[in-house]
Amino acid sequence: MIEKVLIANRGEIALRVIRTCKRLGIKTVAVYSDEDRNSLHVKQATEAYYIGEAAPAKSYLNQEKILDVILSSGTDAVHPGYGFLSENDDFARLCENNKINFIGPSADSMNLCGDKMKCKDAMLKADVPTVPGSPGLVKDADDAEKIANQIGYPVMLKSVYGGGGRGIRIVTNDKELREGYESVTGESIAAVGKSAILVEKFLEKTRHIEYQMARDKHGNSLHIFERECSIQRRNQKLIEQTPSPVVDEETRARIGEIVCRAADAVDYTNLGTAEFLRADNGEFYFIEINARLQVEHPITELVSGLDLVKLQIDIANGEPIPFKQSDLKMNGYAIECRINAEDTFFDFAPSTGPVPDVTIPAGPSVRCDTYLYSGCTVSPFYDSLMAKLCTWGQTFEESRTRMLTALNDFYIQGVETSIPLYKTILNSDEYKKGELSTDFLKRYGMIDRLTDDLKKEKEEKSEAALAAAIIYSEYFKSRIQNSSDNYSNWKNKLG
Questions:
Q1: What is the 3-state secondary structure (H, E, C) of the chain?
Q2: What would the pLDDT profile of 289-315 be if each residue is shown by its tens digit?
Q3: In a shared domain, residues 329 and 182
Q4: CA-to-CA distance for 298 and 307, rounded, in angstroms?
Q5: Distance (Å, rounded) from C-alpha 494 to C-alpha 61?
Q6: Do residues 167 and 47 both lie within one domain?
Q7: Which range marks the domain in which residue 63 is found?
Q8: 27 Cβ partners below 8 Å, 6+ apart?
Q9: CA-to-CA distance for 125 and 441, rounded, in angstroms?
Q10: Which residues form the catalytic set?
Q11: CATH no. for residue 20?
């Protein structure tokens, strides 16, 4: 049984894993770079070890250094979190070879999930619907162009080794395809040293809907409901919610069965996520399996009542999933806003530096997973995600209004954040009506609306300040008139 867990990660996800381990009486080992010496995960873990310079390649991606800490600390399990080494099958295999319990899928299963072409083949054999596209890897730009003309533009060029929205280009004609092909190939080579490209039909006005899946070492598969992740920028998620506005009980069960087939097809163990595109006609198309815990897992916890990190540890321990599909009931509605350190008006460019002061929102059914504290620093070396703000409600409207209140209460000094954009989105009629799509920001002109909202807010603050000044002026005038001193004496006192 797992007694000590090394978290091969940092920030809020490291803190999240530590929290569950503490509750279970499991010791924790933190690793940290130069940038993270004073981070909360270092202070809260049972033990902490320095692993290198700030650059991820010299610390959080340094497999040999992390392995040294695993062995020297007597750790018997590793939780990879998300990002960094979480979907690196070489690291999973390194753990397996050293008899270290990797809290995630096997190296072979992870390798299969990470290879988009092999994974797609496995899904087709399991009768899982996939997006129309190339039957295999394209040989070159000429081959990609031929397939694009066969299935019709627009198409997506996807690197087999991409992930998190990277290594993807949407193109609408032959010229864009050739330019995009070079770009995607270059990104892939820069990231992993090799390139392999797929061509898929780009489905317009789609929703991005994913299913939380779980499968134990005894072959028991189930899903823990869906999450709507359609509001994105540059193919990366901003706001998630569950349940999806377009998934009813029948659809949830039908796609859930497909998810279980997908998990079985790649012999998946532990928790993962099956991601789908939902076309405007209601059809679902499988796109990939994320072989790790998702950033947005807290909203699934809020509506299911489960601790997903505990479930991960239990499955890693060889225990069967302690409930059946029929035992799971979705309770209420939950929303997550990813609080990023970004400048919305400069194409979401990262905003980094000291955070002198911060106020974390709280209250009934408000959850905030974050590494922030007053005096911390947002580093330029790592992801821009600072916090995951989540709210729950018995109804969607209750969850939405709680989120707006929490966003208003969230104060982060020193860096630009995505908070103002989220308030504009959550107040929009389109969001309230559930009219979501992966091009939501562009389709409904949300950046322009944000500009208008900020201008209006500034004007209202100016009017409020003027009104306050008049009230204070009248108050002090009355004080002066009622005092024993006359106005000229009072004026002299004030200098």
A1: CCCEEEECCCHHHHHHHHHHHHHHCCEEEEEEEHHHCCCHHHHHCCEEEEEECCCHHHCCCCHHHHHHHHHHHCCCEEECCCCCCCCCHHHHHHHHHCCCEECCCCHHHHHHHHCHHHHHHHHHHCCCCECCECCCCCCCHHHHHHHHHHHCCCEEEEEEEEECCEEEEEECCHHHHHHHHHHHHHHHHHHHCCCCEEEEECCCCCEEEEEEEEECCCCCEEEEEEEEEEEEECCEEEEEEECCCCCCHHHHHHHHHHHHHHHHHCCCCEEEEEEEEECCCCCEEEEEEECCCCCCHHHHHHHHCCCHHHHHHHHHCCCCCCCCHHHCCCCCEEEEEEEECEEHHHCCEECCEEECCEECCCCCCEEEEECCCCCEEECCCCCCEEEEEEEEECCHHHHHHHHHHHHHHCEECCCCCCHHHHHHHHHCHHHHHCCCCCCHHHHCCHHHHHHHHHHHHHHHHHHHHHHHHHHHHHHHHHHHHHCCCCHHHHHHHHC
A2: 999 999 999 999 999 999 999 999 999
A3: no
A4: 9
A5: 64
A6: no
A7: 4-103
A8: 3, 4, 5, 21, 46, 47
A9: 36
A10: 292
A11: 3.40.50.20
Same domain, 96 and 179: no
pLDDT tens, residue by residue, 242-292:
999 999 999 999 999 999 999 999 999 999 999 999 999 999 999 999 999
pTM attached to this predicted model: 0.87
User: 369 φ, ψ to 5°?
Assistant: -90, 115
CATH number of 158's domain? 3.30.1490.20
Please tell me whether residues 243 and 386 are part of one structural domain.
yes
d(CA 309, CA 26): 12
Number of domain units in the chain: 4
Instruction: Determine the Cα–Cα distance for residues 343 and 12; give it in Å rounded to an integer.
Output: 21
The whole-number average pLDDT for the span 371-378 is 98
Q: Does residue 179 share a domain with residue 72?
A: no
Are 221 and 215 contacting, i.e. CB atoms less than 8 angstroms apart?
A: yes
**C-alpha distances out from residue 326 to 38, 101, 226, 249, 366, Å:** 45, 30, 15, 12, 28
In the numeric block, the tokens 């299963």 are attached to 109
Give domain status of residue 92, yes or no. Answer: yes
45 burial via Cβ count (<10 Å: 0-12, 13-18, 19+): buried
The answer to whether the peptide bond before residue 135 is cis (omega within 30 degrees of 0) is no
